[in-house]
């Protein structure tokens, strides 16, 4: 497969949260191919360490639960110490656990917001100063089309993912004067191993193929490649936007 090459991404320090598996892993791989220095955060140790050994010295893993904001800040600082100021941030970590309306407690609600939304703000806050000093930056927040298509059974997840849009627009406004861009990408249904093993059914796939304009299942690379574009200088005037990548479902 021919992949675009983005000279502006070479040697750039990139952080990807949730980079140990799924879409985040593919994003890490694609940035590594571009010659970026990639730091990624994940709670999953074994898969993440295997990825680092495969990709080599320009990729570094920090084991970190992104809901622990002190740990998140420390991990981001470690990456900046090793690789230089972070000028691309991909806020990708999330957890799409389903929950029945009647089972949700205040503590559970707060936990879902913490894993799906809160860390995106604090990661952006933590890297902002380095981006200002560098004179540029690109923040890419992973949203979701789940709330746009009216998905039930995961109200705390959909609430978080719709809030990513507002968060992105406020970051774009506050950081734009420093030439720091903020965009979000809202994936449709992307067939990671987790999605295929946990949630994909025959009926679900049939419905998806009816609803999508494109009649193929989308894969992590369908997200990773637009992420490269929004991180690179090719999208230098794009900020304050959310881009849907869903094969035309919504
Ligand atoms: N796959 C889809 O269909 C789909 C659809 C819409 C949006 N998205 C969004 O795309 C992003 C990636 O999705 P995915 O399907 O690859 O997810 P995934 O669940 O397959 O992977 C998420 C990664 O984040 C890590 N992670 C989870 N909780 C963490 C925590 N507390 N601290 C650190 N790391 C943690 C996991 O270990 C995993 O490596 C998410 O933001 C998700 O909401 C995915």
Written description of the protein model:
The chain has helices at 22-33, 45-55, 69-83, 106-134, 155-175, 193-198, 202-211, 221-231; strands spanning 13-17, 37-42, 59-63, 88-91, 137-142, 180-187, 241-245. It has 250 residues and is α/β, with parallel strands linked by helices. The chain has a single domain (10-245), classed as NAD(P)-binding Rossmann-like Domain (Rossmann fold, 3-Layer(aba) Sandwich). The chain starts with 12 loop residues before the first strand and ends in a 5-residue tail after the last strand. A 7-stranded parallel beta sheet has the order 3-2-1-4-5-6-7, sandwiched between helices. It is globular. The chain binds nicotinamide-adenine-dinucleotide.
Quick recap:
The protein is α/β, with parallel strands linked by helices.
Kindly list the characteristics that best describe this protein.
seven-stranded parallel β-sheet, alpha/beta, binds nicotinamide-adenine-dinucleotide, Rossmann fold, 8 helices, 250 residues
């Amino acid at each position: 497969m021919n992949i675009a090459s983005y000279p502006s991404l070479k040697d750039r320090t990139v952080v990807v949260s949730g980079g140990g598996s799924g879409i985040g892993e593919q994003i890490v791989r694609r940035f590594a191919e571009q010659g970026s220095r990639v730091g990624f955060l994940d709670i999953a140790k074994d898969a993440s360490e295997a990825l680092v050994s495969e990709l080599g010295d320009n990729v570094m893993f920090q084991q970190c639960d992104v809901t622990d904001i002190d740990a998140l800040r420390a991990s981001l600082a470690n990456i900046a110490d090793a690789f230089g100021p972070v000028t691309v941030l991909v806020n990708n970590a999330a957890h799409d656990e389903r929950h029945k309306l009647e089972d949700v407690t205040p503590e559970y609600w707060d936990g879902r917001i913490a894993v799906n939304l809160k860390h995106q703000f604090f990661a952006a806050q933590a890297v902002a100063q380095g981006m200002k000093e560098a004179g540029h930056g690109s923040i890419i927040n992973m949203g979701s089309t789940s709330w746009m298509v009216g998905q039930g059974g995961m109200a705390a997840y959909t609430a978080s993912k719709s809030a990513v849009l507002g968060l992105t627009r406020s970051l774009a406004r506050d950081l734009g004067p420093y030439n720091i861009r903020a965009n979000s990408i809202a994936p449709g249904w992307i067939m990671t191993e987790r999605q295929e093993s946990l949630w994909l059914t025959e009926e679900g796939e049939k419905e998806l193929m009816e609803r999508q304009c494109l009649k193929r299942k989308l894969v992590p690379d369908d997200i990773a490649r637009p992420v490269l574009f929004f991180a690179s200088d090719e999208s230098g005037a794009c900020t304050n936007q959310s881009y849907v990548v869903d094969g035309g479902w919504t």
